[in-house]
Amino acid sequence: MRGYNSFCLDWREVCDGKVDCWPKPVDELDCHELEQNECGSGEYRCRNGQCIPEDNVADDLVAPDCLDWTDEVLQLDELDYNNICHNGYPSLGCYDAIHAHWTQVKRTHLYCYGEDSCRSKYTQMFHRNVLERAANLHINDDCWATMICLFYALSQIPL
């Protein structure tokens, strides 16, 4: 939560050295514990520190065990990346995990050169995966139009 208005933080904003929540800086508390996490024998440590059984690594791309998908992205090739990230998968998997993997490992998909570039890419994927009409067929046209208007109106208010 940021300030007095309820607002969800992106996971990259937690333990990043910048206080986003006030008057209580809960987003920066106990961050040292994330770095101290060690997995036991027969376990795989996800990039986010989560431990999963080694047998679950690279076993099911559609149902990753790591919350950040790092147990599955290493098996992707370029075709998989394009099929998954441009065909309706949620932005968490595509941007936060898979996109980061291709940016760091393949070097042929360097879309993200810094925080501003990352935010821009994140926003594009958010718009495509959450705000597009095709992603909201379960609500009527008036509801969808209202959601779009509210989103854009609120995005113009500085936090």
TrEMBL record:
<dbReference type="Pfam" id="PF00057">
    <property type="entry name" value="Ldl_recept_a"/>
</dbReference>
<dbReference type="InterPro" id="IPR036055">
    <property type="entry name" value="LDL_receptor-like_sf"/>
</dbReference>
<dbReference type="InterPro" id="IPR002172">
    <property type="entry name" value="LDrepeatLR_classA_rpt"/>
</dbReference>
<protein>
    <submittedName>
        <fullName>Uncharacterized protein</fullName>
    </submittedName>
</protein>
<keyword id="KW-1015">Disulfide bond</keyword>
<feature type="disulfide bond">
    <location>
        <begin position="39"/>
        <end position="51"/>
    </location>
</feature>
